[in-house]
Amino acid sequence: MTEFGKIGKPEVAYYKNKKKIYFVRNLYLPKNATDKYKTIYYRYWDEVEEHLSKLEVAGKISKIFCESIYMTGEETMKVLSAMNVRLEQIVKKRTDAGGELLPLESKEIFEAYIDWYNCLAVVRTKKVYETIHKYLDEIIKERFAHIKSVLRENIADGEAALLVMRDEDRELLEVPDDIELFFATPPAYDDLLQFIRDRDSGKEAWRV
Fold this sequence. Notes:
Elements: E1 2-3, H1 9-15, E2 19-25, H2 35-55, E3 61-66, H3 74-83, H4 85-96, E4 100-103, H5 107-121, H6 126-154, E5 160-165, H7 167-170, E6 179-184, H8 187-201
Parallel strand pairs: 1-6, 2-5, 2-6, 3-4, 3-5
Helix pairs in contact: 2-8, 3-4, 5-6
């Protein structure tokens, strides 16, 4: 795994014929977010675009994968726009340049994952919580096994792919051994982490 900024000129040739994933942590904008959070959020996505452009010296993005996306066609961009308009803009720039947006999720598995996750959120008793968590853990394993197979089957030698998902989900993903993983980690992400720490300590409000 390589952080942005650690690809020097000698390494570009080394990575040219390798399979590559540029990983971007997905960030969402709550409807009632504070002005400070909004400032960090928009700067984050501006910096992500800058970092991706620089990472692409190791290979232009030809495949794009986003969490929650299991559909194809025009509907996909509508879903992306509703989910995260800044992400939709980044993806559209790559698809306009010839990149291909592919479904990352299995519709059946992803919808079951969401159902079990939502069930867990309303549970009140320990026994039921443990029972639901068992099924949730099983579907999570299925989900990430599916995602791993999608990445393995759709990224060819020499290709670079963009992968967008929440950081906590990426930590559960076992990337195929023959794929090099690069992180786009702009400075605004560190500011976000500090913002969250301040929120949790009571120094900062997350929402208005």
